[in-house]
Write a structure and sequence with these properties.
Blueprint: E1 7-20, E2 24-30, E3 34-35, E4 38-40, E5 52-59, H1 62-67, E6 76-79, H2 86-102, E7 107-111, E8 137-140, H3 142-153, E9 159-164, E10 167-181, E11 186-196, H4 206-225, E12 232-239, H5 247-255, E13 263-268, E14 276-282, H6 285-295, E15 305-308, H7 316-319, E16 325-330, H8 335-338, H9 351-370
Parallel strand pairs: 5-6, 6-7, 7-8, 11-12, 11-13, 13-16, 14-15
Antiparallel strand pairs: 1-10, 2-3, 2-9, 4-8, 5-9, 10-12, 14-16
Helix pairs in contact: 4-9
The protein binds zinc ion (ZN).
Residues 196, 208-209, 242, 270 line the site of zinc ion.
């Protein structure tokens, strides 16, 4: 960023949770032996070194688990919930271990949260509840979840050995990465733009959220290269720790609390850098009308559709303090194919589509920072 000529390039300190996956495996023992691809879920406890060998109970929902709760005791519960939407289905990943532990299970597995699978397990954040024991929690593939379900339907006894070396360590220092183009007229008024710089340990995090981070950086690099200095400051923030704690988002809010009244707009790109279609905006009606007008500049690349409601995980805390926010909307068909897997690698990014994301972000950020009137709250 310094080499690109950006201003006020710095790291802002954030303490982040430290979770280590360790060695892990899942072996089907009966009705036949086979190794099942799996990923421990972020924040999970591990198993004893010899693993946990137990019978599996397959259920397709929390409701079914409640109905069959008496059969879960001492078993490994597989929550085989089909994907509906990410927002709905992710609940099984986040609190599945709590529901399984409440029913007396010794570990829990989920069907990976995805609409499409090439036998790839998906990781992601989970959490515990102090009222029930912390049990190991991992994801298996859609294919294998369905296979175990068929075995159960045939009346076969399913037994597996789950080994997880996962452990949690004390918080460690990290940082949000910040760079600016300082406004020439109202430098204290800020348009914030960014993605998150952390990713899961599997794959490269190319889509989630390397693409979004680099696209936001490219926006200010282009402005600088073109000699464009807007009236207000454009600040790129690459947030730390979106995936397992949102600590970067909260640190930004706390460090910049006194300036939030002068934050004009916050823009996040964290839905993949696929073909952009527009933005989802959260703010006043008056501001929405102005954003729609800016959107017309992007109609030529099909990226001018402004919908009501939108933002992002990293800008959530400052939006709750009153900052208008928006998220880049893209063709979302494939995002959850790769999300949080070993397959989230740079070859999945289409340079043309990513360039269009940069264009959409650049036009929106530049106009919001340079227009004579302030975007109203
Ligand atoms: Zn993300």
């Amino acid at each position: 960023m310094e080499k690109d000529g950006l201003e006020n390039v710095r790291g802002e300190p954030v303490l982040v949770p430290h979770w280590i996956r360790g060695e892990e495996s899942l072996e089907l023992v009966t009705p036949r032996r086979m190794s099942l691809p799996m990923l421990g879920l972020g924040g999970s406890v591990g198993t004893p070194p010899e693993g946990i060998r137990a019978e599996v109970l397959v259920v397709s929902s929390f409701d079914e688990l409640a109905l069959r709760g008496d059969q879960a005791k001492g078993k490994i519960v597989l929550l085989n919930a089909p994907f509906t939407s990410y927002g709905q289905t992710v609940t099984y990943r986040v609190v599945g271990a709590v529901a399984a532990a409440r029913a007396g299970a010794v570990a829990s597995l989920i069907r990976s949260v995805t609409p499409f699978s090439m036998r790839t397990p998906h990781t992601g954040q989970m959490r515990y509840d102090p009222s029930v024991p912390e049990i190991p929690h991992a994801a298996i593939t859609v294919e294998d979840a369905d296979m175990l379900k068929r075995m159960q339907e045939r009346g076969e006894r399913i037994e597996v050995t789950l080994k997880m070396g996962a452990r949690r360590l004390p918080d460690v220092p990290s940082r949000n990465v910040v760079a600016e183009i300082v406004g020439w007229e109202r430098p204290e008024q800020v348009v914030v733009l960014g993605g998150h710089i952390d990713s899961w340990d599997v794959g490269q995090g190319a889509m989630d959220d390397g693409g979004g981070s680099v696209a936001a950086w490219e926006v200010v690099r282009l402005m600088h290269a073109l000699g464009l200095r807007p009236r207000r400051t454009v600040r790129v923030v690459l947030w730390a720790n979106e995936e397992n704690g949102l600590r970067g988002a909260y640190a930004y809010r706390d460090i910049h609390r006194a300036e939030l009244a002068d934050h004009v707009l916050a823009i996040e790109s964290d839905a993949g850098v696929f073909k952009p279609v527009g933005f989802g905006f959260t703010g006043s009606d008056e501001a929405l009308r102005m954003i729609e007008e800016i959107g017309t500049l992007l109609d030529r690349i099909g990226a001018g559709t402004i919908t009501r409601g939108g933002g992002g995980a990293d800008i959530g805390p400052i939006m709750r303090e009153g900052v208008p926010g928006m998220g880049l909307s893209v063709d979302g068909e494939k995002y959850f194919w790769y999300h949080h897997t070993d397959a989230d690698t740079i070859d999945k990014l289409d340079p043309r589509e990513m360039a269009e994301c940069v264009a959409a972000l650049a036009v929106m950020a530049y106009v919001a920072a340079d227009m004579p009137e302030l975007l109203p709250r």
